[in-house]
Write a sequence for this structure.
C-alpha cells in the first residue's frame, strides 16, 4: 500500500507561496492549463464544476463574482447554467485571463462575462456588491487564506452565498493510497512532460496536502463570518464543495 504523510495543519505550500510567484507560474502554463485539467481528471472536473454551480440554484442572481477565475471555466459554466445578469471573473495571472477572454469571445459571451486583474486579498469592489461569490480550485493558492475569505465575505451581499470547489483528501485508506500514488508520482511527471514546467505540477500535490480540507476549512469559513456552512464531498472525497451564506 502506498503511504504518504498528510500535513495536519494548514501552511502555504513550501515551493511556491507568494502572489508574484504563483502568478508567474500560472502565466507559464496557461497555454496548457485547460488540456491538463481535463486530461488528468478524465474530464471529471467538468462535472465537479456543474455540481458546484448547482449550489446556487434558486437564488436571485444579478451579479456574480468568480475569484481566481483562471481561464474562466467556472464563470462560463455559471453563465450557461444559471444565466445571471453578469459574471465578473478576477485573477492575478494575466496569462490565464488572456486564455479566458478568448474562450468567452468564442462562445459569444462578452456581454455576460467580463474578466479583470484582481487580487483575492484586496478585491477591487465595494462591500455588499455580489449576489454570489465562487472559487474553483483557487483558494489553496491564496497567500493569506483568511484574508482572501474575508474579502469574499465583504463583497457578498447580505443573503448572498459563497461556493468554493477545492481538492480534498479521500478518507478511505485504500482509495487514498491509490490517489496519492497517482497524485504524487504520475501526475507531476506527466505534467512536467506536457507543460514543460517542472514547478507547477510539483506545486499542485504539495498545495493540496497543505490545504485545510473538510471540517478544518469549514471552521475557517465560519471564523470569517459565513453561516450555514455545508460540505459536499465529490468522487470519494477527491474534491469537495463548500458553501456558506452571509446572513442579513
Amino acid at each position: 500500500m502506498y503511504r504518504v504523510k498528510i500535513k495536519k495543519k494548514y501552511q502555504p505550500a513550501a515551493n511556491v507561496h507568494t502572489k508574484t510567484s504563483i502568478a508567474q507560474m500560472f502565466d507559464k502554463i496557461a497555454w496548457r492549463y485547460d488540456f491538463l485539467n481535463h486530461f488528468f481528471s478524465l474530464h471529471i472536473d467538468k462535472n465537479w464544476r456543474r455540481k458546484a454551480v448547482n449550489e446556487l440554484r434558486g437564488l436571485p442572481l444579478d451579479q456574480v463574482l468568480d475569484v481566481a477565475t483562471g481561464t474562466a471555466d467556472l464563470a462560463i459554466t455559471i453563465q450557461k447554467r444559471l444565466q445571471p445578469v453578469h459574471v465578473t471573473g478576477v485573477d492575478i495571472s494575466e496569462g490565464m485571463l488572456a486564455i479566458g477572454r478568448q474562450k468567452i469571445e468564442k462562445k459569444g459571451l462578452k456581454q455576460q462575462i467580463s474578466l479583470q486583474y484582481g487580487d483575492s486579498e484586496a478585491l477591487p469592489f465595494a462591500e455588499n456588491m455580489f449576489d454570489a461569490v465562487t472559487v474553483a480550485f483557487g483558494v489553496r493558492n491564496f497567500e493569506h487564506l483568511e484574508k482572501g475569505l474575508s474579502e469574499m465575505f465583504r463583497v457578498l451581499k447580505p443573503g448572498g452565498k459563497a461556493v468554493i470547489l477545492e481538492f480534498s483528501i479521500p478518507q478511505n485508506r485504500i482509495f487514498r493510497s491509490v490517489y496519492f500514488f497517482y497524485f504524487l508520482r504520475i501526475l507531476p511527471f506527466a505534467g512536467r512532460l506536457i507543460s514543460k514546467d517542472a514547478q507547477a505540477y510539483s506545486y499542485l500535490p504539495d498545495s493540496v496536502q497543505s490545504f485545510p480540507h473538510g471540517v478544518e476549512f469549514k471552521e475557517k469559513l465560519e471564523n470569517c463570518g459565513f453561516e450555514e456552512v455545508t460540505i459536499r464531498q465529490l468522487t470519494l472525497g477527491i474534491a469537495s464543495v463548500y458553501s456558506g451564506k452571509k446572513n442579513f
